[in-house]
Amino acid sequence: MSTGKTPRGAVLFVCLGNICRSPAGEGVLKKLVTDRGLRDRVRVDSAGTIGYHAGSPADARMRRVASQRGYRLDGRARQFTSADFERFDLIVAMDSDNLDDLREQATLPHHHAKLRLLSDFLPADASRDVPDPYYGGVEGFEEVLDMVEQACDGILGELLR
Q: Regarding the domain delimited by 14-160, which CATH topology (the fold level of the hierarchy) does it fall under?
């Protein structure tokens, strides 16, 4: 049911394949937005810098770990497109390589202004990059969720400013 409020912000999480880290960001922030009654004001999505996994669900290990913490990761992988620069107010890259890839696609100054690293929303002593858990064990997926959970309040605050 719509409250009649217009959306105030849209955020896109971006990682390499859109099956581990960026779906985690999407799922955590969507739950935070829902819990705070902001679904009509904030839009959340995720994408990958490559299209290799396009159409695939999030990695089963990430879905399992996220579900244990109360998050749903039910989106499908898609590749980032230049149109995303116009559709989103904030584009959050999971690591420096993803950020570099996005900067290469950013053709206008206001595109660059939308780009941030997830670690920009973490304490100063945090790792600069969210590690890719794909080739590791469950602890890597836990670490990703820990970092994303820590960052999402700040991301939401920036969107609503």
A: Rossmann fold (3.40.50)
